[in-house]
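Two proteins were folded this term; both appear here.
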Amino acid sequence: MFLGIDCGTQGTKALLVDKEGRSLGRGYFKHPLIERESGAREQEPQWWIDALKHSVLQALDGSQDVPVVAIGVSGQQHGLVVLDEEFRVIRPAKLWNDTETAEENSALVEMLGGAAACIERFGIVPLTGYTVSKLLWIQRREPANFERIRHILLPHEYLNFWLTGNMFAEYGDASGTGYFDVRRREWATEVLEKIDGGSHKLEKCLPAFKLPQESVGKLRREVAEELNLPANCVVAVGGGDNMMAAIGTGNVEQGRVTMSLGTSSTVYSFSSQPVIDNSGVIAPFCSSSGGWLPLVCTMNATNVVTQTLNLLGKEVSDIEAALRFTEPGAAGMVVLPFLNGERTPDLPRARGVVAGISSTNFNSFNFIRAVIEGVSFGLLRGLERILQGRTATVISLTGGGARSPQWRQLLADASGAVIEVPEEEEAGCLGAAIQAMYCDSHARGDHANFSTLTHRCVKFQTDSTTNPRPELRDAYGSALAKYVELLRREYPQSMQE
C-alpha cells in the first residue's frame, strides 16, 4: 500500500491506496490560521505535524495488517520554514497567501533590475506570495530571527524532515520560491545575495536536490512507532500541492489541463519544455514529474463564494439555482472578487469591486452568479495565456467548486472545453501516493513511468462529465469582455502584463 499526505492551508489530509489507486482509508485534521490586518497569514509548523499524525492514524485505522511500502508528501507551496542550528523552528511559517511582504517583493524585483531582468536571468518574476520576499521581510523586520537562520525549508520539505531526519528539495516545489532558475533547474543564489549582502549565508541554508524517482530516506524509528508504520517504509521526495495534484489528475503529458477551485484557484498544463512568459503572468514552474508546469494562480475562489453565500444567508446548495435561473453576464452585474488582494493579476493590495448594479438586476441570484463568474473569468484568462493560442479540449476540474454541476457547466460553456472530474477528490493526496509508487518502482528496478501509473490510478466520474453548449459561447464572451473592461478601469496597471 501507499500513503499520500497533503498539507494544505486549511488542514492536512491522508489517503491510503493500493497499487491500482483504489482508496483504502482516509483522514483529515484541521489547521488553525494566524491572520492579521497587515496581510499576514501564518501557521506554526508544529500544527502540520500534529495534523499529519491525526490524519495518518485515521487513514490507517483497520489497515495495519497490510504494510505501507512508501509515503509521498504534498505541501502548500511558497511557505517559509526557518530553522536554527539546533533544527528548532524560529518563527511561525509565512504562507503562500501572506501579502504582508508586498513592499519587500517590490524592492527585491527592483534590486534585481526589474521584472524583465528577472525573466531573462532566472525565467521567473518573484511575486508577493513566493518564498523569497518572506526572507527579505525577516531580514528587514526581524533581524534577530534572520541571524538565527541555518536551514530554509518549504512546508513539504519540513514534513519530510520530520518524517526522516533528512533535508532535501525537489525541482517542482523549489521553482515557486523565487530563488530558483526554472530553466537550469538549480538554486538562483544571486537572488539570495541581494538579501544577505553577498555573504552566502542563505545559500548555505538550502537543501540539496533529489530527483522524482529518489527517496529522502526511511522513517525515523520513533515516527514509525508513533504512526504504526513499518520501519522500512520509505518517504518519496514529494512536492508542492499543485505539482502533486497534476500527477493526481493525470497531468503528466502534453495536452492535459488541470483546474483547481479551492481556497485559491489554479490552472496549469504539463509541458515538456520550459514555458517562459515575458509578462510574468504565468508561473513557469517545473513539474515534479520531470517536465514543466506553467501555472496561473488566483488568490480568491471558493473562499469568496462562501463569504458571499454567508452574507446573503444562503447555503452552498443555492449555487445550483442561482446559476440555473440567471443568464451569462448576471444581467450586467460584474464582480472583481479580490477580497484578499490578488496574485494574477499581480495586485497584492487590491480590493473587491461590484459594478453594474441596477434596480432590475440587484438580487441574490445575480450577485452569486457575478461572484462565480468573476472567479471563473480570472482563471480562464490565465488559461488563455498558458495555451498561447491553442484551445483547451478537456479540463480536469478539482477542488470544492468541482462538486457544483452548474459551476462545471458555466466553465464548460465559457471555455468550450469538456469538463472532467476525477473520482478521487483529493488530487494532491493521490498524486503524492502515485509519486511514492514511482519511487518504489524505481527502487525495485521496475522503472515504471508516470504516464503508466496515472493511466492506471487516475479515474474520472462518468456522470460528472460536462459538455459545452456552443450556443452560449458568445454570451460568455460578452460577459468576459465586461469583466476585463472593469478590471482595466479599476486597475489599469494590470493591463500592462
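Next, the second protein.
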Amino acid sequence: MTTSFDFHLWKIQTRKGRKTPYRVRWVVAGRQFGNSFVTMALAESFRAQLITAARKGEGFDTESGLPESMERTRRDVSF
C-alpha cells in the first residue's frame, strides 16, 4: 500500500435524475476518486470523514483513495 499526502477535496456535487444523486469527489496524488450517495446527509458524513483524516495527518492510499484508517477497516475480514 503506497500512501500520499497530496489530497484535494471538492464540494458535494448534486446530479438530478440519478438513483444516487449526491457525489463526493477527491484527488489523491493526481488520481481522481468519487463515491455516490442516496442522501445529502450520507455524502456530508463521508466528506467529513475524509476531512478529519486529512486534518489528523493521515496518508491516503493511492489505489483506493481512502485514508489509512478507512482503508484498514475496509480490508479487515469479519467472520
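The CA atoms of residues 14 and 22 lie 5 Å apart. Residues 3-75 form one domain. These notes refer to the second protein only.
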